[in-house]
Amino acid sequence: MHASIQFIAPGLSTTVQDLGRPGYSRYGVPTGGAIDPVGLRAANILVGNASDCGALEIAYVGPSFVVNANSARIAFFGASAQIEILNEELSCEPIRMRTGQSALLHRGQVVKVGSLSGSAVMYMAIEGGFAIDPVLGSISTYARGALGGFEGRRLQAGDRLPLRLHEADERPEITMELPEDWRRTKFRVVDGAQTDYFSPEVFDRFCISEYSIGAGSDRMGMRLDGPALTHLRGFNIVSDGIVPGSIQVPGDGLPIVLLRDHQTTGGYPKIATVISADLAALGRAPIGSTIMFERVSMEAASIAFSEMASDIEQLPNKVRQVELQAGAIEFRLGSCNLISGVSFAH
Amino acid sequence: MSNFRILPAGDRAFVVEFGDVISRAVNAKALELDARLATAAPPGIIETVPTFRSLLICFDPSICSPEKLFAAVARLAEAQNETSVETRRWRVPVCYQPPYAIDLEDIARYADVSTNDVASIHAALPQHIYMLGFLPGQPYLGDLNDILALPRRRSPRPKVAAGSVGIAGRMTCVFPRETPCGLNVIGRCPLALSQSQGRPRFLLSPGDQVIFEPISVREFDLLSQSPAGDASAFERYQIS
To answer: Is B64 near chain A, with CB under 8 Å?
Structure first.
């Protein structure tokens, strides 16, 4: 039988994601994948995986699960959250686990993840990854198409998510700080395919206005509340292609930013496109927060993309070893199961 | 293949737009450019998405600069030579009767024909797949006889069953899975048009032709209960 983690509570929307499946948009399947690919890569690096390995994407409220493996190394990255490790009998004080740091867990230990702050999503990578067969080259969950991931859907209580490894390697735990500028409120855009459906004045209004991210936003798209944008000539167009970051403006004038699980084609004019270098940070912006847009040139977008690519290349150089603290040693001698790389709850 | 515009769609994609109407001539240009690009395979293209009236081209700017790619694509779009777009023909069985044709009465009333005639009108002509979208493997087909060109339903249904065949305007859609739906449901297809778990396949492609074949409720039930309901069996329905 496979090693697994078994879910006690699924959290608000917990899915398996990797970097997605490009190449099938012509069949109506979006590339999908992690809403914050930088967070996904960092979590993988912390557990020693290839950075594009599949991990859990946790949105807003985290899950609880029990470890059904001899040992498993996990790391959370991308947001702050209270994470508690309990033993199976729940008989000892919970241990607090930090995000941004790997930790070794043992069979029967329960991980309880609370509410996220600082980002809409965070990633939990597990050493070796999940034993899930790729669908169209990826284990990303595309829930709307019931495709990929764990049975094509969000995780539910009772699910056993199979792991590739029964046992994690013995090695020192490592940690990584959140990169600077992790949480942004301003996002750069270039023109969309239907920018000419809007007057220059309306485009300016779009760029000087604050928009708040509305309820009902999800992996498919981010609904914005703020000044309505009027169309020059109607809001119904014959469908054309959509990319992540496309900002469409339906009849009510309130923009919708399409995210990773966007529909592949759509019939509303697209005023602008968020540049690809800013998509990961956009994915972190939570419902209820306020954002703004800034128009940049294609050259600036291209430079930003190269900078982001080199930042991603640098990620592995940002890890440092966790120093074993006096508290952790004491704890190793204590009555609870062994766990390293964690500190006591206060 | 003149009369196109190259429109920006972010820093990793652009759109080649041939018009802003639903027409076979416009769609043919998008499909033709798609076929030319598949043959020429200029480096840097990640994928292309043909739609009713345009071709979305996603590219990797670290492999090819946008300017170079615009030029390469424009040359292909401007080329005068005829390009044959590979198309296949499919038979798609559809039961046009209750309980599967949930809007049959409304459709018959709108068209001012008997409920028995609706199937033969809908299935009379081969239909062209303009594009796939909305759901994985979901085809948009046309053109319907004007008689059946109903508007969308005033209030969409929260869900219709997988296989439902919906019509609105001169367009037909076959929904590969349960979905909310604003179209008028004229029937249901017992076959899976695509298979997304296991070994995924999307049998229908943009540009293919579909001949709808009316079947009885009994035939529907037999087909949907047999293993013929999966996508591999669907290949038997390819005509050419």
So the answer is: no
